[in-house]
Design brief:
With 104 residues, the protein is of the alpha+beta class. The chain has one domain. It has a three-stranded antiparallel sheet with strand order 2-3-4. The chain is globular.
Length: 104
C-alpha cells in the first residue's frame, strides 16, 4: 500500500477555512443515478472532512504515494502524538471502499 497512489474520484470544494467537502452523488454515478440526480435541487451529499482529512484529500491527486502522504503529515505536524500511518491506512481504505478514491 505504501507505494500505491490514491486518486480522487469525486468532485469537491474547499471552504474558507481550508476544509474540504467531498460531493458524493446521492444516487450514484450510473446512468439512472445521474438521471435522478439531474432532477434534484441538491444532487449531492456533502461529506465534510476535518483538518487532517482535508490535508490528505488534497494530496490524493495520483502523484503522491501513501508513504509520501504519511511523511507530509508527519512533517506538517498535523498530528504528532502517535504514529499516523495506521490511521492513514484505515482512512484511505474507507475512502476507497466508499468510492471516493481509486488507486493508480
Amino acid at each position: 500500500m505504501e507505494t500505491q497512489r490514491p486518486v480522487r474520484r469525486l468532485d469537491w470544494r474547499e471552504g474558507d477555512d481550508g476544509r474540504i467537502e467531498v460531493l458524493r452523488p446521492k444516487f450514484g454515478t450510473g446512468k439512472v443515478g445521474r438521471w435522478i440526480s439531474s432532477r434534484l435541487q441538491r444532487p449531492h451529499i456533502a461529506i465534510k472532512l476535518d483538518e487532517t482529512g482535508s490535508f490528505v484529500w488534497k494530496l490524493c491527486d495520483g502523484t503522491h504515494a501513501v508513504e509520501e502522504i504519511a511523511a507530509a503529515l508527519e512533517k506538517g505536524a498535523v498530528e504528532t502524538t502517535r504514529d499516523i500511518r495506521p490511521r492513514l491506512a484505515v482512512f484511505l481504505n474507507r475512502m476507497a471502499r466508499r468510492g471516493m478514491i481509486d488507486w493508480s
